[in-house]
Amino acid sequence: MLSSQSLYGVLHRPIVRIILLCLFILFLFAAMLPRTDPSGFFDLVAPQDQIPPIPHRPMGPPRHRIKAQRPLADPMAAHDGPWAKRADAVRGAFLHAYQGYLTHAAPHDELKPIAKLPVDNMRSFNGWGLSIVDSLDTMWLMGLYEEFDAGLAVVANVTFTMSPNKYAPFFETVIRYLGGLLSAYALSQDPILLARADDLGTALLPALNTSSGLPMFAVNTVNGKVAKGWAGDAGLAESVTCQLEYKYLAYLTGRKVYYDAVERVMDIMYEANVTSTGELFPLFWSIEDGVPIGRSVSVGAIGDSAYEYMLKQWLLTGRTDTKARDLYIRSMDAILDHLTYLTPNRGLLYVTDATVDIHGTFLPSHKLEHLTCFLPATLALGAATLRDVPQRHMWAARAFAHTCWVLYADSPSGLAPDVALMRSTQGPAPPSPFGDPWLAHLKQWEQSGSQGDPPGVRSPESVRDTDTAPEYTPIGKSYLLRPETVESFYLLWRTTGDVMWRERGWEVFESLEREARVEGGGYASVEDVQRVGGPKIDEMPSWFLAETLKYLFLLFTDEELVPLDRWVFNTEAHPLPVFHWSVWEMERLGITRGIKTEGDTP
Ligand SMILES: *[C@@H]1O[C@H](CO)[C@@H](O)[C@H](O)[C@H]1NC(C)=O
Ligand SMILES: *[C@@H]1O[C@H](CO)[C@@H](O)[C@H](O)[C@H]1NC(C)=O
Ligand SMILES: *[C@@H]1O[C@H](CO)[C@@H](O)[C@H](O)[C@H]1NC(C)=O
């Protein structure tokens, strides 16, 4: 047995001390060798030449995340049903469009489908391969994994740079590029996509660094210089339609700066006094001091997706952002009260824009924009998820989607005009050729005992009452491959289960095939929807790939590939997964509302 005395003695023998020193040096040397462990567990030192590591959550416990395995669901599941064949046809259309782009235009932003040339609209889309980024999630959902992987290779190379005097438009870049990257990341979990989204999110942030916090129109992604748009002021949709993207990005990266920058915009909306415009948000806002400018209100261009994002902020945060929800309900009620009309003879419900005079009277334009046809989708989603919203939200959704459908069904080409003036020109002389507010009809209907369908709603909604005069005139005659109407069909199909909406979507698709498909790849916008086989406009906007074909595909797949209780579509149809802030995140980001409210329907 070795006494402590003799152990001390052994350790102090010179030979033992040399051996110990050698062992120590060896240990240090081994610790400095690069480690290559296939499990990655011991991969503590990243080689310098790799892409930057994805940002990690800075602290806190692991969280629940919707993890999509490839495939998310099998898009080919019911392969031989009648609807699966239609879904297949839409996939074929996507391939026709995308192959045309790949052959003639990649990696530029968009395809000119007739000239078969690429186009980089530097003023709008930055030249970073827009059509690819905007289409990634569509490819994933359609099961086109080869195309998806090829797209990833391009995304991996994107640096989001531009020359010093160019600008990226904040709104378009957020909804198309940032939304596209985040959604493709959520579906595939490929870290490249999150790394690029984080790069882009940071590069665009200077747009929000204004005295009020409302975004500038555009920003240079390299030097951070900002620029105003034609209007000078901030548009309503432009200001609010960054909430889903930046809040989800804040959730993924743990970066407080993202959350703070966009929540400042919401604070302005919450605090704004909009009583003089009947609780509707004016279209323009001062970037300097964050107050509304002018008295124009609209659910079409410049306004539209602001209202959509109020509801969707609540949904995306696991139905916890009750302040955004309440703003949505208040705004939607105001839209139904003040901007919603019924045509005199056919009883078509439509939503228009207006200016509000100093007495608070609404002066409507009676124009209906195709862009506004997204509203039935939002109303139906709200009615299906909110407790206590009046039934009239769902009635309005069905009635308005029917009108949007009528614009297609009446048209010789089977496609809807971009803008219609809702004014009755023939038939029995109406008291007002524009019709009366829907609210007045609704009150009358209720007072007389709510007999039959509510005004504007038909069950079943029938069309082709062609003996009646149309009650509108197309004043923007083109069809720009827009998605809003089929988006509404998709949401109505999912929330009501009425197969009529699928049938109508199929008719729209058939018209697209007939009127917009271009030989040799691509689809083109249609110049005049009142002509059959008429001239085309040499454009295939990326939203056709991102939205129109995605919603049509989802409308025809029997399985719900993107369950609406777990995913929220951004305004460019990019699905983002519902998430819940954890307690530590709420503390860290300063979120004061996050408690799940009881009683809201799942
Ligand atoms: C990515 O960039 C590298 C280097 O510039 C280039 O060789 C490669 O072809 C690019 N990949 C794609 C898919 O564009
Ligand atoms: C915001 O703008 C101010 C001046 O306008 C500048 O000093 C500051 O560095 C900017 N902050 C960021 C994060 O860009
Ligand atoms: C909001 O503005 C209206 C006039 O437009 C005014 O009468 C009202 O007092 C204001 N409300 C608040 C809370 O400031």
Could you characterize the architecture of this molecule?
The protein has 602 residues and is mainly alpha-helical. It has a single domain, classed as Glycosyltransferase, CATH 1.50.10.10. It is 43% helix and 9% strand. The protein has 19 helices and 21 strands. It has a three-stranded antiparallel β-sheet. A hairpin with a 4-residue loop joins strand 1 (110-112) and strand 2. It is globular. It starts with a helix and ends in a 13-residue tail after the last helix. Bound molecules: 2-acetamido-2-deoxy-beta-D-glucopyranose (3 copies). One 2-acetamido-2-deoxy-beta-D-glucopyranose binds next to loops. The chain crosses the membrane at residues 15-33. Its EC number is 3.2.1.-. Keywords: Calcium, Disulfide bond, Glycosidase, Hydrolase, Membrane, Metal-binding, Transmembrane, Transmembrane helix.
How would a textbook summarize the main sheet?
3 strands, antiparallel
Q: If helices are DSSP runs of H or I spanning 4 or more residues, what is the number of helices?
A: 19
Distance between the termini: 73 Å
> Helicity range of the residues?
40-55%
- Oligomerization status of the protein chains: single chain
Question: Taking strands numbered 1, 2, ... along the chain, how are they ordered across the largest sheet?
Answer: 3-4-5
Instruction: Give the overall average pLDDT.
Output: 88
CATH architectural group: Alpha/alpha barrel
Region (Disordered): 446-471
InterPro entries: 6hp_glycosidase-like_sf, Glyco_hydro_47, Glycosyl_Hydrolase_47, Seven-hairpin_glycosidases
Transmembrane segments: 15-33
EC number: 3.2.1.-
